[in-house]
Amino acid sequence: MMKSKADEEEYWNSSKYKAFTFDDEDDEFSRLKESKQAVNSIRRLVEEDDDEEDVEKISWSGEPVGSISWSVNETAASNQRTDREPAFPKINTDSSTTSKSQSGYSLSSLFKGKTKGGSFQQFTDSLTDSSLRLYAPELRKPKSEYKDYISDWSPEETVQRMQHGKAVSLEKFRSLQDKLLLLDFSVSANDGNVITAVLIYLKRTLSKEVLFRELQSRQTALRHLICYLRESRDHRLLQELFRALGRTEDEALLKYKEHLSIADENKRRDFLKSCLSLPFSPEDLALVQDHYTLLERQIIIEATDRQAERGGNLPTKKMPILNMSLITTLYYCCFYHYSEAKNTFSSPLNVRQTFKISEKQFFVTALAARAELKEWLDVDALFTCRNWLGFTKKKSPLSFQRVVDILQKNSAPTQVLQDYVALVDDAELRITLAQKHKCHDIVINTYRDLKDRQQLLGYRGKVETGSAEEKRIDELLTNQQIRWKN
């Protein structure tokens, strides 16, 4: 059906779509007008959404914009971008920049994420501006905390503050007089920690000659310095101190102690030999001489025993000997070389004679070594002696109670223990030891000698029924020749 001309004119004039026109200026102006209206509507939406009470802004890291963690991260990122730039931004003297900075930004904008009079977009654009860097303010410590360092304390006041554990600076005491006053006040305070702290400062700031000279008249401070140098193992400075003070014996002893740091036994022996020329006192020189002789003998014995052990002439050793003490060396010789001739280095008698070991010390060491080997004949020979008439008896330089204890610790049999328990002089102690080690014959004989019938009758109930000890007790109780006390 064909429309009429009037209908077509009405369609084109009433439609919201306009027909194509060749009037470019009118068309461009209308589009520009429409774009401006759209931008204004978007701006109104942004300004409405900019209320921080209604909308919470989130950064790319997921943290709320304006929070403390966000501000710290933004500041750190800004510092990384200015890796080689000065620590503080340059001040721009341009009036336009200054006015913009004063009108558009504030300290609160750094933490809240927006400007005073602008939008959030303006604040974001300002962060990308290389000419302007924003930094979080650095909070300085209060001046009261620096008072201990900058105050002009006298030496006496400084020592008092050190006694109370307060921080002070000793660097301001630069003259010798002030340093010596500081040392004298610390000594008067009788505080070892303060004295040591002052001495460490003087040791660092004074020459050795001046320090040593001043300490000669301050014996308390000198003793503290010597103790400190020993604890810190500053042996070189300690030797110089002894040399400056004329204490040659102390210097020699300090030199002698260096052998402890020498691991090789041959080098240690040579070092000890060189120490024999140092100015020791007579008593100390004798000890150093014995130490050198002992180590030299230990090296010889060790080399000989290793060769004998490889040849099967000596059992495998259970103990070392190098760098051992004198008594340990004697024990070693009594254990492995007890029957050797006196003219050999490893003979116990030779060791005793060379180092002048006392009879009691030699006896105890030999007894322990032979008892550990269960050589009871050698043990018995240690006690046997002959008088001028040729009679033998048992004699000991230590009490027989102590002998019984040594034998019992080495698992001596009852028969061996019984021989030495019987030699205990005190009757009550002898009975106690006999009961402890089950030496029944000694208990029975002791009660018989004491003529104590009641004690013997009571002990009868402690032995086994039908045993030889019970029969012997019955024989003694029925013996009419014994006059019992009761």
Walk me through what this model shows.
Helix content is 60%, strand content 1%. The chain contains 26 helices and two strands. Strands 1-2 form a two-stranded antiparallel sheet. A hairpin with a 5-residue loop joins strand 1 and strand 2 (392-394). Helix 9 (176-188) runs antiparallel to helix 10 and helix 24 packs parallel to helix 26 (468-477).
Supply database-style keywords:
486 residues, 60% helix, mainly alpha, single chain, 2 strands, two-stranded antiparallel sheet
* Rg from Cα: 51 Å
Q: Helix content range of the residues, please? A: 55-70%
Secondary structure tally: strands: 2
SSE pattern, N- to C-terminal: HHHHHHHHHHHHHHHHHHHHEEHHHHHH
Fraction in beta strands: under 5%
Question: Quick check: average pLDDT?
Answer: 77
For the biggest β-sheet, the strand order reads 1-2
Shape: elongated
Based on helices, strands and strand pairing, what is the structural class? mainly alpha
Low-confidence residue ranges: 20-25, 48-55, 82-117, 130-136
Number of helices: 26
| Terminal Cα span | 165 Å
Main pleated-sheet profile: 2 strands, antiparallel
